[in-house]
Structure formats: C-alpha cells, structure tokens
Amino acid sequence: MPMILSPILSLAEIDIYLTRFSEIKSSNLVDFHKLLSEDELLRLDLIKSKEAKYAYIASRGLLRKIICCNFQLDNNSLDFSYSSDGKPRFSCLTSPSAESKKFNLSHSGDYFILAIGEVELGIDIQFTGGNILFYRMLHNILDKQEMSEFSKLPLHDQNKAFYRIWSRKESVLKYLGKGLSYPMPKIMASLSPNIEVDLFLINSGSTGRAITRDLDFQLKNYVSAITWYVG
C-alpha cells in the first residue's frame, strides 16, 4: 500500500500520514498481524470486539510499516515503550539516532492518522457522525468561557464544534502524555482557527509553548487536530 508510506502533509518538521481502514486488503491485515510483537499480541487477545481487534491490528501494523520504511529499520529490531500515562515511544537497537523521533497516532471510525516529528507532539481524529449525546458531556470538557461561546452557536453547528474542541483537547492531552483522567476544562481550546497553548497553565511541570491547530483534510464527518512544541 504505497499510499500510506508517504506523508499526506508536512507541518513544522512533522510528517502526517492518513489512511482508511476500509482500503486495507485482508492480505495486508494478515501481513500486519505478522509484524506484531509478543506484547502487542497479548494486548490483542484482551480485545473482545471484532471491530476493535481489526482497528488494533491495522493501526499497529501501519505504525510499524511506516516507521520501518521511513527510517530503514528492521521490524524485528523495533520496540515500543510507554510512559506511566500511556504515551508511546519507540526504540531500535540497530539505529539509536531514530529514537529521537517523536510520534503519536489516533484512529476513529474509518480513519487512522499518524504524526512523526522532531518535537513532542500529539494528534487526534474524531468521527462526528456517531449518535453520542454530546450535550451530556459538555461540562466534562468545556470551561465556562468555552461553554459561553458554544451556547451562542446555531444548533446545527454545535455537533461539529463539540467534536472540534474535543479533538483539540485530546491532541493537547496526548502531547502532554496525560490520560483522560486529566480535567479537560483546564485545557484552553476556543473556537478560533488556531490556538496557542501556554503549557504552564495546564501542566505546572512543563515549560515553553505549544501550538494546537486543526487539520482540514476535507473529510466528511471527521475533524482532526495536532499539538506540537514550538519552544
């Protein structure tokens, strides 16, 4: 599948890859399964639903394929580790210099997205066409100012706006290596096109600045955002 091995977008020394699960052939899925490590196979066994198993095999296989092709690595030498909050890192005994690369991935609905760069980053994609009753989740995600902005939107715009803010905040959480237990209202994500985030406001242990930006791939019923370190 050559389409997934080249970035669809390059942004501030970050390469972004996007592909559809539905375009992955069954033969590719078998090949991806063979790429998984023992630890990944154990994680796969814990997944119950058929759809979730498919997404796991596809996303992990794509991740390994893209990293190995871009850095000329052997899959057997590639390993992954995770922070206490679940943020992934990769290591490779045959190419220590590649370990400086940062990556983050997300999948939702039919799409998989991956970002690889020289700086800390987080990326997220959300399917907006589901049946989630988003208004029940607003107070868990928005702060008072965002709630005020949101309430002024026409009703027909609120569904996409909700997922847009959610995607932005998810990308910040993944950038910081924070889990979903972190209070989302503490993360600023207004409805403006681009947002600069002061890290010290959301994580007293961080310094410097990050930018959160929407990614517009013209996908029906999808929104995506990325956050990356700018110094």
Automatic annotation (TrEMBL):
Similarity comment: family membership: Belongs to the P-Pant transferase superfamily. Gsp/Sfp/HetI/AcpT family.
Protein name per UniProt: 4'-phosphopantetheinyl transferase
SUPFAM superfamilies per UniProt: 4'-phosphopantetheinyl transferase
Enzyme Commission number: 2.7.8.-
Domain 4'-phosphopantetheinyl transferase: 121-192
Transferase among keywords: yes
Pfam families: AASDHPPT_N (PF22624), ACPS (PF01648)
Residues covered by the 4'-phosphopantetheinyl transferase N-terminal domain: 34-115
UniProt organism field: Dyadobacter arcticus
InterPro entries for the chain: 4-PPantetheinyl_Trfase_dom, 4-PPantetheinyl_Trfase_dom_sf, AASDHPPT_N, P-Pant_transferase_sf
The entry's keywords: Transferase
Gene3D superfamilies to which the protein is assigned, alphabetical: 4'-phosphopantetheinyl transferase domain
GO molecular function, one term: transferase activity
Organism domain of life: Bacteria
Keyword Cell wall biogenesis/degradation: no
Recorded coiled-coil stretches: none
